[in-house]
Write the C-alpha cells for this entry.
Amino acid sequence: MKILITPRSFSRSKELALEILKDYDLDIIENTTGKTFDEEQMNSLCSDVDGVIVGIDPMTERVLGNAKNLKAISKYGAGLDNIDIDTANKLGIKVERAVGTNAVSVAELAIGLFFELSRKISASAASVKNGGWDRFIGCELTGKTAGIIGLGAIGRKAASMAAGIGMKVIAYDPYFKDDSFLKEYDIQMKPLDKVLRQGDYISLHVPVTEETSNMINRETLKVMKKTAFLINTSRGGLADEDMLYQALADGEIAGAAQDVFSKEPPGEHKLLGLQNFILTPHIGAYTKEANQRMVVQSTKNLVNMLFGDE
Ligand code: NAD
C-alpha cells in the first residue's frame, strides 16, 4: 500500500510514526517542501495512494474523486474543515481525527492571548527593544468573566485554566452534556447572546460549520462589552473580518487576538494595521508535546482504518 503524509511538522517526530509503521509493508510519500500543499498538488499526490495523514491541505471533492485507491484519511489534528466529509462518506473513505492531542497546547495559547491582550506584553517588550520605555495600563484577569464558546477538547481545557486563574467561567455549547465537568469548575452554561453580553474575554473553540460560520459578525460584536476582548484560536471563518475591523477601529470592543485567519498567511490586511489586533501564525498546536501526540495518534488512526479489520 502507498500512503501520503502531508503535515509540515510531522518530520519533527517522524521516528515515532516509523516505529508504528514498521510492521506494515508501506510505500511512504512525505512532504519535503516545507509548505502546505495546494489543491493541484493534492490532486496529483492523492491519485494513487491508499491512505493519507493530512494537515490543513485541501481534500476537496475533486481531490477525493480523483483518488481512486483512497480508503482512509487520518487528520493530524482536530479540525476537519479542509476535508469534504460528505464526499468522503459518499465514496466510502474513512475519516478519523487525532482528538484531544493538541487540546492543552491550543488552550494554553488561548489563555496566553488573554494575558497578552490584558498586559500588551509583546508591544511593551518591543517598545523597550526599540529604545523606548512605554508602559501600557493593563487589567487583571482574576475576577473577570471568561466566555468560552465550544466546550470540546480545547474549550474544556481553556475553561478549566481560566477557572484556575480565578476567572468566572460561563460557556455556550448546545451539544455539551457533562454536568460533572461544569460542577468541578463552577461553570455556568448560558445562551450565546448572554455569553457574548457578559464575557470580558470571549474565546472561540468551535469548528466552522454552517451554524458557526461568521458567528462573530456585526450583530454579535454589537452585544459585546466595549471593554471585552475576543480570542480566536479556532478558525478564521468564525469571525467576519471586515466587521471585526470596524468594531475594533470604532472601539466597540477593546481588542482581539487570533491564531487563525480566513487566508493564511493573510498578506496585507487592514486588521493588521490596528494596535488592538494581534495575529499569531497558527501556532496553537505547534508545541513539542502536541506534535508528538498528533504524530502517534494520527499514525495509529491511519493504521487502524487501513488494517483494523485484518
Ligand atoms: P472538538 O470537536 O473537541 O470540540 C468542538 C466543540 O464545539 C464541541 O464540544 C461541539 O459541541 C461544539 N460546537 C459545535 N457546534 C457548536 C455551535 N454551533 N455552538 C457552540 N458549540 C458548538 O474540537 P477541539 O479539539 O476542541 O477543537 C476546536 C477547534 O479548534 C477545531 O475545530 C479547530 O478548528 C481548532 N483548532 C485550532 C488549532 C490551532 O492550531 N490554532 C489546533 C487545533 C484545533
About this structure: The domain at 2-101+287-307 is CATH 3.40.50.720 (Rossmann fold). The chain is about 35% helix and 15% strand.
